[in-house]
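User: What would this chain look like folded?
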Amino acid sequence: MSCESHDTQAQNKRFLGETIESLVKEAKDLKDDFEDVPFDFRHHKPRKFFEFPKEWALTPERKKYLEEKRAVQAKMEDEKRGNGRLVDGKKVIETSLPFVSPQKVEEPVMLGAGRRR
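Assistant: Here's the prediction, encoded as structure tokens.
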């Protein structure tokens, strides 16, 4: 807060001190409970609270089911790796793309247009 309505700095400081003191006094006053002040909720939008389905909760049975499912998937992937049926993307790219040696390409030279005589 600042004040420049009085002639001297001391008067401005005193005015600010009195203003703050009166604001604190009003804030501590418990007589007024603001029941007469109407509420305006046009600017307020209530928060939405989302609830997750109960089926998603990690119960011990659900944890066991997920672990079994992951173990089955890991076993299937291991079998595919052993049989050669698992596709390795890196290997496919390395073997299928031809190895092109970088050739030096000369930069194009701009030629002037024909001269007028």
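The two ends are 81 Å apart (CA to CA). If you want, I can go into more detail on any region.
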